[in-house]
What does this fold into?
Amino acid sequence: MNLVVSHYQKDTDMKNLSNQPCLIARSLALVGDAWSMLIMRDAHAGLTRFDEFRKSLQIAPTMLTARLSALTEDGLLEKRRYSERPPRDEYVLTEAGRDFLPVLFAIGAWGRKHRGGGEVTRFFDAETGTEIDPVTIDRETGAPVGTRAIRTVLPG
Amino acid sequence: MNLVVSHYQKDTDMKNLSNQPCLIARSLALVGDAWSMLIMRDAHAGLTRFDEFRKSLQIAPTMLTARLSALTEDGLLEKRRYSERPPRDEYVLTEAGRDFLPVLFAIGAWGRKHRGGGEVTRFFDAETGTEIDPVTIDRETGAPVGTRAIRTVLPG
DNA sequence: GTGACTTACTACTAAATTCATAGTAACTGA
DNA sequence: TCAGTTACTATGAATTTAGTAGTAAGTCAC
It folds into this structure.
């Protein structure tokens, strides 16, 4: 499908999702694979270094290099030098990367409902101590997505 | 990564995300690739038939067969016979599949903010006519995800 | 200052997946 | 009977992914 990996390839790929009118497709062009999503998850969990990601995900280093480069290129992560000698870089979330958290929580919420059970990682509000129960609503009406009829308008 | 495609493979894959404590990883085991997500998007848009998906996505039929089977196997779609002769099946969303809509909207919302511009498909509330602006909040506190500190609790 | 260790990779090959095209099965409708 | 429709399967090439090993540029312990 050629969604990720090489920037060069992406720019020249005719079938690229990045130019589609559907914003879901455009987004998936950047993060439409499990590794990228899991890297984003781990980045939100506070991991920043190559080896942290590699150990957490048990991902082949070639894959990790490719994904980190792509996510950096696409503006979800930023490569930052944290040591001049030896030269060492870390990958930190950009604003766009931080804004990705709701997606991860929406996915997690679906998983809790439909793939829950057994031992699961849970998230709590640090202030109130209550478990976080993510719902995606329409800011305007306040209605949870999926509870009301939607009209789709194509461009052009 | 062996996330999808063959059920057999998934069950025997040691590295399978399905058994992880992280619900995000578990979910991604089922829908952690762009094709699956786009099929879900199209299913929500009302597509049900093999050829509708194939034409909409320009996906190779082998891929489509594999993805539809996996999504059906995993309970997001249901295969339903709509004609006895000739034998014809269609794929309709299950409850789990319908519950996936918030994920798609969360992804779309991210895309609108960070990959918007140009001609984009838009969604409106059919009743109020206002454009849908999805926000993922914590049901308990009402706070948008990402605006408050979170405590992660690992199992065990 | 030598040897063990760390970190962030790259090289390389094998395995698996994906893509694209063509073809098939079971019909319908003219 | 013959083109057309729908839902696929077969096949082989191209691409991607995985896994292991190795490298570069240091630090630290003694």
Strands of chain B lie at 77-83, 88-93, 122-125, 134-138, 150-153. Residues 101-115 of chain B form the longest helix (15 residues).
